[in-house]
Specification:
Elements: E1 2-4, E2 7-9, H1 27-43, H2 56-65
Antiparallel strand pairs: 1-2
């Protein structure tokens, strides 16, 4: 999937999903299958999901959909750390 001309587009030739027959479907017919694959993958995450796009325009579009992450401060611990041990002040 790529972001082109103001919307997400699909390319059946670049699709690697074996459940979508490349040769027997037109681009218009394959698009709902490809989009459904993305929907299923992105809605099944229990804790979160990582999206990675190689296309710069698609990266920018996806980045605009998600609010920036906030670094949360971790409260001070009540025990002393052993000498030389470090603790991160932020969740990772």
């Amino acid at each position: 999937m790529k972001f082109l001309d103001g919307h997400l587009t699909t390319d059946n030739r670049a699709n690697k999903d074996r459940g979508v027959p490349r040769s027997s479907l037109t681009e218009e017919q394959a698009s709902p299958y490809i989009r459904n694959s993305y929907k299923v993958l992105l809605t099944r995450a229990m804790v979160g999901a990582v999206l990675y796009a190689t296309d710069p325009r698609t990266q920018a579009y996806l980045k605009g959909l998600v609010p920036p992450l906030e670094r949360r401060f971790v409260p001070a611990v009540t025990r002393r750390l052993p000498q030389g041990e470090q603790m991160s002040l932020f969740d990772t």
